[in-house]
Amino acid sequence: MTAPRQAAEEAVYRFPHRHLLGIEGLSPEHISFLLDLADSYVEQNRKPDKKTDLLRGRTVINLFFETSTRTSSSFELAGKRLGGDVMNMSVSQSAIKKGETLIDTAMTLNAMHPDVLVVRHPDAGAVKLLSEKVNCSVINAGDGMHEHPTQALLDALTIRRRRGRIEGLTVAICGDILHSRVARSNIHLLTTMGAAVRVVAPPTLMPCAVERFGIEVTHDMEDGLRDCDIVMMLRLQNERMQGMFVPSTREYFRFFGLTREKLAVAKPDALVMHPGPMNRGVEIDSELADDIDRSVIREQVEMGVAVRMACLDALTREQTGNAD
After folding, report:
1. Which of 117, 137, 208, 303 is the most exposed place for a label (fewest CB within 10 A)?
2. What is the helix, strand, coil percentage profile of the chain, to 5?
């Protein structure tokens, strides 16, 4: 047994949450527990025999009201590698939206006695509503502009494995902060774990009063990237925009797209991250995105499977004293 896995085994019954609906509210100890457990699954996933029977007899339903490639496929792989029965339900093109219809869906699924529901929904708060109507654990795979907790966890795991720590690092999150649930979850996690966070975006893509999260706010890429350890780029969330937020993608790239020239003011070994999917030539230069010395984008994808295995593991163990 690896040292991280052993530590996680010893701490598991102190993980008090029945659901994983967001990063907000998790303590540093709970976040570290999930990262330690995920660390052990990284090593397992690199072995020829990747499967265990940890979830043998358990049922995981992936319920996606929005289309997804990385998140849905990694949750499917995670459930199967743990030996669970996994069912994928894509309802993004159906008439099911929210409110009573969502509750009816929850009650129908609850009657099938799943152990975990993994839910992605376009409306903030919908996943929490569903969690209140079912008897199983629920994992938020992204709800509107609210949170995407497993993305923040996989980003943190990527950083920790490459830098050895999160505390004391300076992380610049750049791009469409306003519409990004990834940004919100990362801000919660990184500040909780002791990192200094800067958000960089044009004024039209910056949330009101974002400073209340204890972060630095700037509208200039050079100021935002200066001496930072990690540069996390975000795509323009065009599907959530109503109206014009930038004059053109060409002008956006000129001022806010990540290039080698802009990255030069960061630390010489600064890492480049992106949650995907990437819009090459819009928020990041293609050559930089593929630079194996600076970009950890592919590592983020690998960490995603391990983190989702850890979350399924933690939430399906016998628990006492669950808090939510």
Report:
1. 208
2. 40, 15, 40
Closest CA to 40 of 322, 313, 306: 306
Q: Which residues of 237-271 are buried (b: 16+ CB within 10 A; e: fewer)?
A: beeeeeeebbeeeeebbeebbbeeebbeebbeebb
Q: For tokens 């376009």, name the residue.
A: 122
Peptide bond into 268 cis (omega under 30): no
Contact yes or no for 286/233 (Cβ under 8 A): no
* Beta carbons within 8 Å of 143's beta carbon, 6+ residues apart: 119, 120, 121, 122, 123, 124, 125, 126, 127, 128, 181
DSSP annotation of 187 reads H
Average pLDDT, the chain: 89
**pLDDT of the residue at 249:** 84
Beta bridge partners of 89: 63
Structure confidence by residue, pLDDT tens digits, 202-229:
999 999 888 889 999 999 999 999 999 9
Q: How much is the pLDDT for 6? A: 53
For 257, the token pair is 């797209």
Cα gap 200→298, rounded to integer Å: 23
98: DSSP letter: S
Is residue 58 within 8 A of residue 309, CB to CB? The reply is no
Other residues' Cβ atoms within 10 Å of the Cβ of residue 180: 26
Largest CA distance in the chain: 56
Q: Which residues of the chain have pLDDT under 70?
A: 1-14, 90, 92-100, 237-247, 318-324
pLDDT reported for residue 251: 87
